[in-house]
Hydroxylacyl-CoA dehydrogenase
Amino acid sequence: MTTTDTARDLHGEVVHFLARQTHLMDGRDFEGFAATFTEDGEFSHTPGQLAATRAGIVAELVEFHRRFDDDPVVRRHWFNMVVLDPGEGGSWRATYYAYTVNTRPGGDQRIGPSCLVTDVLVRVGDELLTRSRHVRQDRLHFD
Amino acid sequence: MTTTDTARDLHGEVVHFLARQTHLMDGRDFEGFAATFTEDGEFSHTPGQLAATRAGIVAELVEFHRRFDDDPVVRRHWFNMVVLDPGEGGSWRATYYAYTVNTRPGGDQRIGPSCLVTDVLVRVGDELLTRSRHVRQDRLHFD
Amino acid sequence: MTTTDTARDLHGEVVHFLARQTHLMDGRDFEGFAATFTEDGEFSHTPGQLAATRAGIVAELVEFHRRFDDDPVVRRHWFNMVVLDPGEGGSWRATYYAYTVNTRPGGDQRIGPSCLVTDVLVRVGDELLTRSRHVRQDRLHFD
């Protein structure tokens, strides 16, 4: 980030950035989603799993979504309560709450697992990019 | 919008504008809600249905809410993941996720259908107004 | 607030402030949470109950959370649809929707009661503080 970035200025921009990411993910535009990460970006949505680089993130998402091949569902990621803290080297850490809202044929919409997400965001040129994302489901607190 | 509007500047203002609309709608101030649309505004919440003009939007909302005459419920619209894209003639398109949270006597709160909403927003003088709103329930993807 | 605060400028800052409060509350850092209130701050989450002063708010939260001593749960407060209106003496009133998302061992996440929250916010020096918070559950509309 530039030295002029402050959490106060940045919050709306980050919320907007996260919104655009969810629309890409939920629209299954995995290439577009991965392009919002740095080239060496990291994405972990499950303990022990870590996808690295944009190509690696795309591959992971394609693999992950195979489970929906025979399970038609509209998935929407909801993020909320985004807290920003300055990180190293001008980066920012965004910590926020998340769940999915899943709609299946003939069924009601259901909310998926509640999660805490921790991102490291950097500014490259004029745009925000995600350097890393770690998702932790709340139910894992009890394991 | 003025030429100085950018998505970065506008995002918080749009989120606030949408919040105020939901409070008007959920408080059943349909006149107040319709006044947040342009005079010739359009509002479609169901495929094949389209209300036009502020008076038409009020009439549609009065008619729609008749279903709750014998079904007391506190309804709250939750919008999230708002993405802004520039549209024609200085307008902006806001695309976002939505559901209602419905509380009935003696029952738990329940979440209503997950939706994708697409608005066209314009600035008239100093204020934002909705020129059109189209709501699409996710479960219609399976029809 | 200073005379230069406008709802347009303030909205993102308030949303961020509320997010940080929820992380403190949900992390059960009650001292940290209470420190986001003015020294004489008030917090009412149930009709007839009112905690006052930071020490009083901490005591109330400790007491309230005793119910979870034998009921392990990850709680997350979700706030949304934040509307700001100018109040007396440079204060701002924030009115918004809220629920908790509760995850228990072996169970799915569940959404808690839908609420309307009304805060009075003031700026002290450079920071926002909550002067008062009143939470009203929607199901009380039917009592």
